[in-house]
Amino acid sequence: MGNSIHKKPLIGEKGRFLIRNILRGFLYLGILVALFFLIRNALAEEERMEWFGTIYNNPYLVMLAFVGSEILFGIIPPEVFMLWSLETGWIGPYFPSIGMLSIISYTAGYFNFNIGRIVKNKSGLLKSRNKFVRKYMKLFEQYGAFLIIVASVSPLPFSAIALLSGAGGLERNTYLKYSLLRIVRFFVYAYILWLVQR
């Protein structure tokens, strides 16, 4: 009798998917920090300014790049902007500036979610043959609203998944609630960067 009862796995498929992507995020964070220290140690400050000075010292340009990146599916990892904020202090004290960056990212995701809701019946987005779209639509079909949680806290393209979630008919309140984890992720990663920099 006892042998016929199958034990449930300790962590289900959703849990494994979440943990795998969180670990991937920490791996990417580690690589980024290693590259940052390599550049800092390999190049003198004058050389770094020659390479990055025009952008590095222009907070308006950096913030424009951040907003554009967050709307256009995270072309630049947000940790790059966290490091910039930590190094320069151009947009104020570190943790308040992280709060501002996280709210921008959250808002960009919500913007894309609404774009998805608008275009879902007016475009072939959900039937697209594009590999990128098909990949994340398949994940959305498999995991539903849970995919927003994973995208909020991992390197999965948050704004792209927000767009597809809107197009896929996810309820607005569910999206807004689950995507709040995006703000949590920013502060966790920012705190790790702050510890590494001390």
Describe the overall structure.
- The protein has 198 residues and is mostly helical.
- It is built from 10 helices and no strands.
- It starts with 12 loop residues before the first helix and ends with a helix.
- The model has no long low-confidence stretch (mean pLDDT 85).
Provide a short characterization of the protein structure.
It contains ten helices and no strands. With 198 residues, the protein is mainly alpha-helical. α1 packs parallel to α7 and α4 runs antiparallel to α5.
* SSE-based structural type: mainly alpha
Unreliable parts: none
Q: What percent strand?
A: under 5%
Structural shape: globular
Number of helices: 10
Q: Percent of residues in helical segments?
A: over 70%
Evaluate the radius of gyration. 19 Å
Spatial gap, N to C terminus = 58 Å
| Biggest sheet architecture | none
**How many beta-strand segments?**
0
Helix and strand sequence: HHHHHHHHHH
Report the average pLDDT across residues.
85
